[in-house]
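TOKENISED FOLD:
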Amino acid sequence: MVLNCPGCGSQVAANTSICSVCDYIIDGSFLSGEPPAEAPEESTDAAEDPRRAARPPPARRPRPAAGKSGSRPAAAPSPASDSTNIRSVEDVARSAPKQRAARAAAPRPAPRKAPAPEPSASVDPWDRADLDVRGSAVTDPDELIRDAKELFAQLQGGDKVAFWGAAVVLMSCFFPWKETAVDGDVLGLMSLGCGAFIMAILLLTAVTVRVKGSLPNVNPVVPWMGQLVVSIVCLIWCIVFIKVSSDTTMVPTPIGNSEMMNSSPSFGVYVAILGAVATLGGTLLGLKGQSSR
């Protein structure tokens, strides 16, 4: 059997509750909460199913409003406050000028200024005028040269001879003092000549201290006697070295078929002897000059 839909006039089946074209409710019995009438069942001796007795009745569905048959039920009104706190674009646009005005009216904190650097006087590292003020541990080369010139100007007669004689002994230690068949040339610093090197330093120190008067509280005779004793010991040391380093045993040379002495003194020790003699002579001249005063 075919019926016409009251809402749109379309043909629908006789047992249709809602029109499939316009959703018009043709039969509203399915909206009621009352279950359809069932045929009476014959009573039996079997006990009733407890699950069926305990099942709650289905909830009653709301009926459509009167005068609006065929339309869907209206949606529930939205609450006054939105729980998700989502605002529309219009609300954001309306509140933006107010927020900008509030931020512009709020007082801004004053920016922090960096502390001004303390004025420091620029020091020229090459300026030698204030070396004493800065307390530099490095001695000025000009000052050393000036002191050396003053020392050379104060050297007179025997002191000058003794000073330069000790300097010659000092320099001779950097030359060969001995020549051996095995090791070849041996420097004075690498042999017993190091003793003459130390004594030459002591002679130079004694002459400098005595001439410049660096030790005013010391008796002047002490530097003179020390200079005399050290110059004599230095001369004897060089002579003994010549004797010790002389070995006349003939051995084959490392190169060739000739023979050579096993060990012989070299020219450095003879230069040291000349320097030691000059130092001893200068010391004696100085003592003679002191006695004549």
User: Anything to note?
Assistant: The helical segments are 50-54, 89-105, 131-134, 141-154, 158-172, 193-212, 221-245, 267-292.
